[in-house]
Amino acid sequence: MILIDRVCVIDKGLRCLAEVVLPERVYWVAGRSGVGKSGLWYKGIGTLYQWHLAREVGRCKMINVGTYGGYEVQYVPWLNRFGIFAERMQWYFSEWIGGAGKRECRILENSEKFQFSAVKVDSMIPIVNDHNVYVLRIEGGKGKVTDVWKVMELLGIMLEKGWNFPWDKGAISDINAEGKVTDVADMFKSNDIKCKFGTVYSVLYSMVKLYSDLAKKFQEEVGVSLELKELPFSCLKVMKRLGCDILGIWGEKKVEYSWGGYKDLVLNVLMEGVNCAGIEFSEAGDEARKWYKNDFLRRVAECRS
């Protein structure tokens, strides 16, 4: 257990660039977040450094090939130290490792405007270079959602009001037991049907990967298959059930599996939507889109050969 009372920003020479005292002692939970003794959540307090994603290896030790053409690397002098580290956590976001940078300022607006936000901003503590600690009240806590119909209600509101998740986000882990969203920073507004499709896909795909019991219940109670090849078609069925017009991406055809339909929905609908890399910089999203499409086409060729 790591208990901190201040946020420290550390450079590659292990020098402290900034130090800010917190209003209470905070238990680090995971990632860059912790919970204070008051029960308030703190986002952007730093992290226990293990690795980050980079475009080039440089002075770092390469661990694995990462996503979007980058690498999973480790700067050894930082290993197992706690703080905010003066290097991007992911090459496609500007914020530093363990910190909450410009991208996170969307919490302020989204938490007020999105009616199913579990997050209310209590205060904001400036750290350095557009990085802040966000002090949050989380209605209903961070316990995972287990009610299928709370998921459906949330999706219905998002589709109706034009709120979206990036299609490749593990969105189900951001939905709590009350069916509210605990991380609203990456949510965005759009009525583009491709983004709506991606929103439903992100929830259902991550449900299969992360919450197998909920996925089983969802299949039984909603009456759709969450098998990978059926997933795009099940997204269409869920959208129709929630009153969303899918003519723009499917026409008047019956919603049922076909190999050609599967490829078209993945390549020309899903991957044409907003991905995580494009949340802050559109050009990074374009690059990630090319990476995803090339990877998908390679896999398709392998499985059909």
Keywords:
305 residues, alpha+beta, 2 domains, 9-stranded mixed β-sheet, 3-stranded antiparallel β-sheet
Describe this structure in words.
- The protein is 33% helix and 25% strand.
- The radius of gyration is 20 Å and the shape is globular.
- Helix 3 crosses helix 4 and helix 3 crosses helix 5.
- It has 2 domains: 136 residues, no CATH class; 157 residues, no CATH class.
* Main sheet record: 9 strands, mixed
Low-confidence stretches: none
Relative strand content? 15-25%
Number of strands: 14
Helicity level? 25-40%
Rg over CA atoms, rounded to whole Å, is 20 Å
Silhouette: globular
The number of helical runs is: 8
Quick overview of this protein structure:
The protein is 33% helix and 25% strand.
Summarize the SSE layout with pairings:
Blueprint: E1 3-10, E2 16-30, E3 33-36, E4 41-43, E5 47-48, E6 52-54, E7 61-65, E8 71-74, E9 82-88, E10 96-97, H1 106-113, E11 119-128, E12 131-138, H2 148-161, E13 163-164, E14 188-189, H3 193-210, H4 212-222, H5 231-241, H6 247-250, H7 259-270, H8 282-304
Parallel strand pairs: 1-9
Antiparallel strand pairs: 1-2, 2-3, 3-4, 4-12, 5-9, 6-8, 7-8, 9-10, 11-12, 13-14
Helix pairs in contact: 3-4, 3-5
